[in-house]
Amino acid sequence: TMLERGVKVTVNSDDPAYFGGYVGENFAALERDLGMTREQADRLARNSLAARLVR
């Protein structure tokens, strides 16, 4: 996967009120539907922190 190859992949919630998916719900869907592991979820969360616009 891109994540395994070191690509800085993130999980986002673009317009959650309109699309009905907040970040926590998106993570839950990845775990439920794609079998995402805790290690993968942790890496995605760390990537999000590293990629944020405000520091």
From TrEMBL:
GO terms for molecular function: adenine deaminase activity; metal ion binding. Keywords: Hydrolase, Metal-binding, Zinc. One of its GO terms (cellular component) is cytosol. InterPro entries: A_deaminase_dom, Ado/ade_deaminase, Metal_Hydrolase. Its cofactor is Zn(2+). Residues 2-50 form the Adenosine deaminase domain. The keyword Zinc applies. The keyword Zinc applies. One of its GO terms (biological process) is hypoxanthine salvage. PANTHER family: ADENINE DEAMINASE (PTHR43114). Belongs to the metallo-dependent hydrolases superfamily. Adenosine and AMP deaminases family. This is Adenosine/AMP deaminase. It comes from Aquipseudomonas alcaligenes (Pseudomonas alcaligenes).
